[in-house]
Design brief:
The complex is a heterodimer of chains A (375) and B (321).
Chain A: E1 4-13, E2 16-26, E3 31-35, H1 42-50, E4 57-62, E5 65-66, H2 72-75, E6 77-80, H3 92-101, H4 107-120, H5 136-149, E7 154-158, H6 166-183, E8 186-191, H7 194-200, E9 203-208, E10 211-216, H8 218-223, H9 228-233, E11 240-250, E12 253-258, E13 264-266, E14 278-283, E15 288-291, E16 296-305, E17 309-316, E18 321-327, E19 337-342, E20 348-350, H10 365-374
Parallel strand pairs in A: 3-8, 3-9, 6-7, 7-8
Antiparallel strand pairs in A: 1-2, 1-4, 4-5, 9-10, 11-12, 11-14, 12-13, 14-20, 15-19, 16-17, 16-19, 17-18
Chain B: H1 2-53, E1 76-78, E2 81-83, H2 89-121, H3 127-139, H4 142-152, H5 159-166, H6 180-209, H7 213-220, H8 225-253, H9 257-263, H10 272-282, H11 286-317
Antiparallel strand pairs in B: 1-2
Helix pairs in contact in B: 1-11, 2-6, 2-8, 2-10, 3-6, 4-9, 6-8, 6-9, 8-11, 10-11
The chains are: A alpha+beta (375), B mainly alpha (321).
Keywords (chain A): ATP-binding, Cell inner membrane, Cell membrane, Membrane, Nucleotide-binding, Sugar transport, Transport
Domain ABC transporter (chain A): 4-234
Pfam families (chain A): ABC_tran (PF00005), OB_MalK (PF17912)
Chain lengths: 375, 321
């Protein structure tokens, strides 16, 4: 097992720069998740770690060794691909053993390793089958098994669950989490699914347009996003952003008028803010409520019922559309006017440059440990 | 009552469905008919007529005077001596020549085709141009390339002799297509030159169908490229190569134009088709020639069936997911 260090990693494809100088320290035995919208460079970054792409500039260290010029094999990494990348003409056993056959392992040794991996992944009854006789989840387990038998320093996962259906995705997610616990291995996991990122990660790296937006524990990113991009990307449905004006500045926070509402107080560090400044007020759907009382007023346009909760899509008086989450069944009806209540202890304030003003006050227990770890 | 109604309903549905499917069937036959009629006219009728003529003593001077003579064209005995195609040494020589030509030329074409396809499958500048250029020999009509090579291989005026004499490999000109020891090799070389692009094209198509991710997986596993080729690439493109070999073998077994233009009716290169033509046209023995043509048909049909069955079984192993 090993740590991975990225120093000023740059990657160009022709004249297009895909990765703009990424610095990152991945700790030993950590499960780190790269998340971001498609085209943000998360898969490229993983392929750079794997050695499938050449690094244009910067240095990469695995276990303290500079690996810029090393082949994937010499880096002692194993990779699980989104498309599984199984050899279609080989059976499950051969697929897992193929990578070992040329190395110095004896036949018995290979067999032991493969049988052990098959046992862990519950593939033992399927060893004689060809990939096309397997379900998607089984294929993905074979791909993971192929990685396990090589006993790598670092496991790399490139969107391993995105070809599976929703139910299987949840199940495999749990299996990967369990695998990480059992193997105690360094794992780098790429996904565009923020639920996967939140549930699996020790730390999440949010990438956007080839740059790291924020690195931190899942709850740190949720509660203290560094900027509007991270705030919008983490959490589903996404955070609402509403225009607001600063009406008062105090040491313990700022007072805002959200589209003409009575002032609400948000506990953020007000450095750099003055009365009259225009800012963006950010609040998650789960931190709002609808009813007859509230700071904002609007009209319900669409209702989405989920059973255990519901979403109201409310058109505010300034024309913006926000999402409000409520528990249980919705009482409101589409087309009705309603008031929206804000829980400002969970609100965020973003400046014109998109950066968040840091939050004040005591943190929740989870948040605190998360922040310490991420620091 | 209810039961009766239900049965009634089922019966109506069944009738409706069969009406629909019979309408579809009619439409299908309607669309198939023109092609079936055309095939019957240009392939079925000549084939049946050739088989029939093989059982007659027809002669090119007057086809209307032919008589049914049973298997005499194939095998007959007069005064204890056997006659007929089946005991004709020249026929068996032609069969041997054809098989020799087919095995060697198709073998070489498959090998070179695979090599060229592997090169063309790699990323390099001007790949499109090279791909087009490689296809040129295949696009030239056989008769033209045969004539062209005929001149290039000419013993007195040929450029091949000129070059080989010039660099000192030969001390005197060689009659490549006339000398029995080189004639077959000359024919094989021209055929390989002409048809390798076809094999390269089919193999390239198969190579392009291969998923790229398994090669990355192999790279991550650190498996060397030669091993990847034999353990991954070759098994996966084998079904396509078998199909290509069947196509080419069918062509090679009935080779005519190339051999006829390059070496005329020389015994050392005579193929089954050239033999049949010689009997039919030069000797005007339509009955005897038709018998030879029928045997040619049977040999090709047999070999193809064997190849398809054997190849089909094999291609079943190289399953693609």
């Amino acid at each position: 097992m090993a740590d991975v260090t990225l120093k000023g990693i740059v990657k160009d494809f022709g004249s297009t720069r895909i990765i703009h100088g990424v610095d990152l320290q991945i700790k030993d035995r950590e499960l780190i998740v790269f998340v971001g919208p498609s085209g943000c460079g998360k898969s490229t970054l993983l392929r750079l770690i794997a050695g499938l792409e050449d690094i244009t500039d910067g240095d990469m260290f695995i276990d303290g060794d500079l690996v810029n010029q090393r082949s994937p094999k010499e880096r002692k990494i194993a990779m699980v691909f989104q498309s599984y990348a199984l050899y279609p003409h080989m059976n499950v056993y051969e697929n897992m053993a193929f990578g070992l056959e040329l190395s110095k392992h004896s036949k018995e040794d290979i067999k032991d390793k493969v049988m052990e991996a098959a046992r862990i992944l519950e593939l033992t009854p399927l060893l004689e089958r060809k990939p096309k006789q397997l379900s998607g989840g089984q294929r993905q387990r074979v791909a993971i098994g192929r990685a396990i038998v090589r006993n790598p320093k670092v496991f790399l996962f490139d969107e391993p669950l995105s070809n599976l259906d929703a139910a299987l995705r949840v199940q495999m997610r749990i299996e990967i989490a369990k695998l990480h616990q059992d193997m105690d291995a360094t794992m780098v996991y790429v996904t565009h699914d923020q639920v996967e990122a939140m549930t699996l990660a020790d730390r999440i790296v949010v990438l956007n347009a080839g740059r790291i937006e924020q690195v931190g524990s899942p709850l740190e990113l949720y509660h203290r996003p560094r900027n509007k991009f991270v705030a919008g990307f983490i959490g589903s449905p996404k955070m609402n952003f509403i225009e607001a004006q600063v009406t008062g500045v105090a040491e313990d926070g700022v007072e805002l008028s959200v589209i003409g509402s009575d002032p609400v107080k948000v506990a953020v560090d007000p450095t750099g803010l003055a009365v009259g400044d225009k800012v963006e007020f950010g609040i998650r759907p789960e931190h709002m409520g609808s009813g007859t009382e509230g700071e904002l007023s609007g009209k319900v346009e669409v209702i989405e019922e989920l059973g255990e909760s519901h979403f109201l899509h409310v058109r505010l008086t300034d024309g913006s559309l926000i999402t409000v989450q409520g528990r249980g069944d919705a009482t409101a009806k589409a087309g009705e006017s309603c008031k929206v209540k804000l829980d400002c202890s969970h609100a965020h304030v973003f400046g014109g440059d998109g950066f968040a003003f840091s939050k004040l006050g005591t943190l929740g227990q989870h948040e605190k440990t998360a922040t310490l770890e991420g620091a | 009552m209810t039961l009766a109604l239900q049965q009634d309903g089922t019966a109506t549905r069944k009738a409706k469905r069969s009406n629909l499917s019979s309408a579809r069937l009619r439409a299908a036959w309607l669309f198939l008919a023109p092609m079936m009629i055309a095939l019957a006219a240009v392939a079925g009728w000549p084939l049946l007529r050739t088989i029939w003529l093989g059982f007659t003593d027809a002669n090119l001077t007057d086809l209307s005077q032919s008589q049914f003579i049973g298997f005499e064209n194939y095998l007959s005995y007069y005064d204890g001596e056997a006659y007929g195609v089946l005991v004709d040494a020249e026929w068996w020589n032609a069969v041997w020549n054809t098989l020799w030509f087919s095995v060697i030329s198709v073998g070489l074409e498959t090998l070179f085709g695979l090599l060229i396809a592997l090169i063309l499958n790699a990323e390099f500048k001007g790949r499109g141009l090279v791909r087009a250029a490689v296809l040129i020999p295949w696009a030239i009509p056989t008769i033209v390339s045969a004539k062209m090579w005929g001149w290039m291989l000419h013993d007195q005026f040929g450029v091949i002799n000129e070059i080989l004499l010039g660099v000192g490999i030969l001390s005197e000109p060689v009659a490549w297509t006339a000398d029995p020891s080189t004639a077959m090799w000359a024919v094989i070389m021209v055929d390989v030159w002409k048809t390798t692009p076809f094999m390269a094209l089919l193999t390239l198509a198969a190579l392009q169908m291969l998923p790229g991710d398994i090669y990355e997986a192999a790279r991550v596993d650190g498996i060397n490229p030669i091993r990847v080729f034999f353990k991954v690439t070759l098994p996966l493109i084998r079904p396509a190569i078998i199909v290509a070999v069947i196509f080419r073998s069918l062509d090679a077994l009935r080779v005519f134009d190339l051999i006829y233009v390059l070496t005329s009716s020389s015994t050392s290169t005579m193929s089954m088709s050239v033999y049949a033509r010689q009997q039919l046209v030069d000797f005007q023995e339509v009955g005897y020639g038709s018998a030879a043509a029928t045997l040619l048909f049977i040999v090709i049909a047999l070999l193809t069936t064997i190849t398809v069955v054997a190849g089909g079984l094999k291609s079943g192993e190289g399953e693609q997911s």
